[in-house]
Fold:
Amino acid sequence: QVQLVESGGGLVQPGESLRLSCGASGSIGGIDDMRWYRQAPGKERELVADITRGDTTDYADSVKGRFTISRDNTKNTVYLQMDSLKPEDTAIYYCYARNQYTNQYWGQGTQVTVSS
Structure:
């Protein structure tokens, strides 16, 4: 059984940083895309950042220059370094992975709250 487990969320003040981690366990196979999504209260889930197996990255305009996605293929883990956090970054952050067989997996989500 494949599981994605996120960690690293929490409550921070504006301008501070957080680092999210998401590890895949189980027989997931070769992972192609890994992504971070987020969903704020009353809003639709949105793509925050994406990284391919070859380390090509893409970001939502709202986080460019502040967030950095990276991955460790030996550990089937993806990270999201979030700097200069703003109150509008407050949301539940979800990890996503798609393997070589196009199976898709989601984590359970981790809360990030940015507030003074």
